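note to self — DONT lose this again. spent like an hour looking for the file last time. sequence + predicted structure for the chain T wanted, 125 res
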Amino acid sequence: THGSVRTDDLRPAIVRVRAAAGQLGGFAVAELGSAVDAALSRRPWGIVVDLRPLDEITPAGLAMLMRLAAAAGELDVGLILVCSAVVRSALADAGLTENFELSHDLDTALATLGVVVRRLPGTRR
């Protein structure tokens, strides 16, 4: 069964959008794109797009990621892709790697955004 895109806040002003499992093509491209667009409209400090559930990415998926990178750049929102080797090599094959901040996991992504990964006194999570 295919899940769907999930959005949650990792930290104040840091939004995570997690891709649905499977292939990033067709409907999944539109679904992920609109979820990230919705996150961008909130003007967060950063958006972490978690692509680890993907096992394939289509040219349409790559085009959508490029559009999101441009939109985030215009709004001055940090955009980081957390991705597996599959997505990383697809980006590399298309010559797009330098357009994105890529991370292997959420902690690295948060560190790239300059978030100190620690719990403040008095906050529960």
